[in-house]
Amino acid sequence: MNGATSAARRRGVVYHVDASYFVFRAYYSMPPDMVDGDGNATHALYGFARFLADLLESARPERIGVAFDESLRSETSFRHAIYPAYKANREPPPPDLERQFALCREFCRLLGLAEFASDAYEADDIIGTLAHRARSAGLANVLVTRDKDLSQLVRDGDVFWDVVGNVRYAYHDIGERFGASPERIADFLALTGDAVDNIPGVPGIGKKTAAQLLAEFRSLDDLYDNLERVPTLKLRGAAGVAARLREHRDCAYLARRLTGIVCDVPISATLDDLKPRSPDRDGLTRFFDTQGFGSLLRRQVERIAAAAQEPATN
């Protein structure tokens, strides 16, 4: 894993932050009694701001994009048009969380960072598009997230960085960690389903069986093109697995349309737009005053602003 990180640094790196995960994490882990002068909750904003400031101080990225989910509900997503029950199991977000999401985006802009959101595509799709462009330009990607879905974007030289667990996964680590190689993750999830997003898979196909199938077949298409081979595999209940796959073929392919990350979202930003700009110090001071934030975060942002004037090391 360390070797992959070093190779990525030599090639040039683009950091992609899955912002929504870290906002949610802060909302449910920070003390909820943090409020501004008007009594509005600020704990998710503060937790996210500390996370982002820590990331900028430790990594000093020369290119970074911060992707948000514009709608915390799924109704505007193209996936919802495909499957209306997509994410229907999720409770509506509390109003104070939606408010803090908007403030997190404002904080990114004041820091001089490129932030993105779409009402049709998810943060994963935005990250997928920017990562694809970076790779085409010969740059490596660091995916700052804990979301297994994003592991499908990892290619040789890239890094999946679980900041919370302080673990970095290179391309060849993904299969052991998530059950399938990056190219097969979307197929893996199509077979098993994804309860988090309310995506049904093939009934009776669990993670172990899906991993065994995708070790034998290159893709979901290859599996279904050679379905007659499944009963001959050294697989527990192989004949029953083949029957379930045959019966639920449409369900598997519907799920595959939902689990795959889109890599051609219409984003006008260039890779140069991902280079951090100098923070708006006056704007940040007013922002911190309004939110009632103390000296700790202010000093940290001042260090980031000063470091922005120095040449980046990666």
What does the model show?
The chain folds into two domains: 223 residues, Rossmann fold (3-Layer(aba) Sandwich); 78 residues, 5' to 3' exonuclease, C-terminal subdomain (DNA polymerase, domain 1). The N terminus is likely disordered. The protein is α/β, with parallel strands linked by helices and 314 residues long. The chain is built from 14 helices and six strands. Strands 3-2-1-4-5-6 form a six-stranded mixed beta sheet, with helices on both faces.
**On the 0-100 scale, what is the average pLDDT?**
93
Radius of gyration: 21 Å
Overall domain count: 2
What string gives the helices and strands in order?
A: HEHHEHHEHEEEHHHHHHHH
> Structural class of the helices, strands and pairings?
alpha/beta
Strand order of the largest sheet: 3-2-1-4-5-6
Major sheet description: 6 strands, mixed
Number of helices: 14
Terminal CA distance reads 17 Å
How much of the sequence lies in strands comes to: 5-15%
